[in-house]
Predict the structure.
Amino acid sequence: MSPKPINVLITGTNRGIGLEMVRQLMEDKGRVKKMFACCRDPNGPKAEALQALANKHPDIITIVAIDVNNLESIKEAAQLIRSQLGGSGLNLLVNNAGIALEGNLQEITTKDMQDSFNTNVLGPMNIIKEFLPLLREAVKASGISGMSCNKAAVINITSMEASMDVTKHSYAEAAIVPFRVSKAALNMLTVCAAEEMKKEKILFCMLHPGWVRTDTGGQWAEIDVKVSVKGMLKVIATMADKHNGLFLDYEGTTLPW
Ligand code: NDP
């Protein structure tokens, strides 16, 4: 029996990995009941591709304004989404929006690090806190045992470059200190959330998308956005209790801390 269609929220969906996630989930017919595709400026020119996709699926996709650096916008979005869900809750929340500021320790500024923490750590933290009531509603409404994205799951898009072990080998080619440090903090936030929420059966996991050809990954990156997202959606679909708090890549491989 195929699972019930799920309610999904993804941040940073106007381009890159977020946009492709919305696209592939729409291709999986009947998989999504409601898709809340979030971006900073829904009516701006940078959201045209997302608007076109939403026009194709008007009963499923709602474009929602969220700047993850702005708590008020997160709170307003949570209220709007709650009113649209009518008690069925949010089954899958993907904290995808992120920035990748470069530089080694001697080059970076306090502002670089503050901006990175605001977007990559405080953004996901506030999203999790504000949408927790809707994740709880999904647990209640699901009627299924065990953790999964059919019940309630939060996926934080992180990076392999946040790994201490990986950094020892890759730092010389890519310092990207604000990115590494903020994504490592995001990983810790995810593990804390996984521990705190496991009794409520809300799954938390972090996923490295691969080195992907997007504005962040650059044109020389290893994989196409389609491959990355296809892999991540497959991994997300198979997640269960044993994946709670894990640091995985888009192929489901466990990464070292
Ligand atoms: P892109 O640069 O293509 O897209 C980044 C997305 O994040 C955009 O939609 C952008 O919106 C959004 N965003 C940035 N800041 C905010 C904000 N304050 N509020 C709301 N949205 C925001 O990057 P990717 O698609 O490659 O990245 C997606 C995720 O994957 C990120 O978390 C990134 O760190 C992670 N990642 C990517 C890798 C890669 O190789 N591509 C490798 C490892 C991790 P806007 O257009 O408004 O700026």
Remarks:
- The domain at 6-249 is CATH 3.40.50.720 (Rossmann fold).
